[in-house]
Amino acid sequence: MKKHITKIALSALLLGGGYLAGTTIPSLANTFNSEQPGSANDPLVTKGYVDQTIDKLIEEKLAGTDLTIGGGLSSSLEVVKLQPGQALYPNVGTEMIVRTGKTVAFSDTSNGLADVTGAKDVLNGVAVENNHLLINPGVGRGIKPHESVDYTIYVMVRGGYTIK
Known about the structure:
Residues 1-21 form the signal peptide. Keywords: Signal. The protein is α+β, with helices and mostly antiparallel strands. It has two domains: 1-33; 69-163, Jelly Rolls (Sandwich), CATH 2.60.120. The chain has two helices and eleven strands. The chain is rod-shaped.
């Protein structure tokens, strides 16, 4: 009988100790960790809130960016009409393809436009071949209709430019 009472007492002691440990240890952990989820120190947010905040920040950043042709950030090609006597001054990095007409390159320096298709430089006064991709590597360079041209030249342009 004594064994039986000892087992019951031991079981009660273990159950009571387990209950006491289970209730006091989490509350002790909370006193050491004051950052409760959802509090000002540890905010709990939803995925929707994060997505909405990110979208708002992206819109704010894009609102201050000029995405027009003159800004040099266009990702699409624009067909530009170049009249006799005009000159196309592309921004640095602007891509051009002369589609129709006879044009020549001009440059303020000894360097010219990069003809990516022909793998060469098109220097000042040299004729530009139609349907060749040109990239402007510097300022003071561009293309203009040949002096014998009396019709509209069509040029596809990606990036910023000025016509003078």
